[in-house]
Amino acid sequence: MLRPFEIHEPATVAEASRLLARHGDDATVYAGGTELIPVLKDGLAHYRHLVNIKTVPGLDAIAAVGDDLRIGALATHRMIERSPVVRAHAPVLAQVAAGVANLRVRNVGTLGGNLCFAEPHSDPAAVLITQGATLVLARSDAERRVNADGFFVGILQTVRMPDEVLVRIEVPALRPGAGAAYARFALHERPTAGVAAVVVLDGDAVTAARVAVGSVGPVPARVPEAEEALVGRRPDPEVLREAAGRAGGAVEVLEDLYGSVDYKRHIVTVLASHALDEAVARARGRGH
Amino acid sequence: MDGRAPSMRMALTVNGGPVEAVIEPRELLLDFLRDRLGLTGAKRSCDVQVCGACTVLLDGQAVSACCTLAYEARGREVTTIEGLAADGHLHPLQEAFIEHAAVQCGFCTPGMILTAATLLHDVPAPTAEQAKDYLKGTLCRCTGYWKIIEAVVDAGRRTRETRE
Does domain B8-83 correspond to CATH entry 3.90.950.10? Predict the structure, then answer.
């Protein structure tokens, strides 16, 4: 049996933020609940006040603004997976959403909740980091914008302040000549490892590259060593293999029940190779 | 609050009929359905939304009742396996599960059938691949899944033929 709590039903983000501020450590944001409810059931945390932001209208909206994509923080993985707008503007994000856990979790779990919970074993963050996404955090009186790259600070930790509500995720359009891809490996509900890549080609040279690895370390993170191995070079197979090897070699890895450090480095190298191959193929004009 | 649980009144629809109840916010939908309404088709098994044995439909979408607050059902429609047969007739999925012997111990069957029902709603005559996609994460320890997949595909085919 869960310990008792009260559920608050704010009508606005400002009201939600004020409730969070008023109750401090005794309160938390309640959205899809796919992460929070199991934590409460296990007694790993307890809050006497759950602030249900699903009573704030419009936080699940998905829309294109120009070429950019705006995903409300309460959009579920299922909504993202099936959204024609997401499929058109950020197909890799739709692909990733379709792979989250299982249908029941995708029906209820939200992208915002996934990001704010910051469980390291997760897919969407690495993709958002490579695609230059911005997270919009709101308080009762102000908004601030944080790069996806700088949002995660540790296991289950982000830069979000306790009275801030993540309201939306903005994903800029890929620039011309860019290709994006994501490769993952999962034996359980949560992934063992995932590698996201964006490669920008001008003619036969890589002009920019982003490689981000998720699930294997404390936070999803770019691997500059892999990116530097690509920029200014022709994306030949040996160049891509070298960059993939650097991704596996340089990324911060923690040993856990999903595998040893060596095992994860190997998996990341293989996945990076797949992701880079696909990103380059797409940059060469096979769509995306 | 001083450790005393607040309570709240909610009205919802369960298997087509109106239900009113006073609940605690912390009450889980699975306990509400099983212990208060006596609907024991949804099973408690993994208790961490991995196995699908507790699956029920909330406004037609599959959810894990073990990790859903009963509060989430306020003003909404809950369908459990007990509510799938209509007017004394088994749902085509239930008939297909019987015909294909897709049931062994039966513990996972309510979750399998309810999840498959959402598939048939989304995709009237699904392929085996589509059935696997929806049923991924709904675990069966007896059948090896093939008979389940066959039953779902067959139910979809028959449902479409009936409609045509």
Answer: no
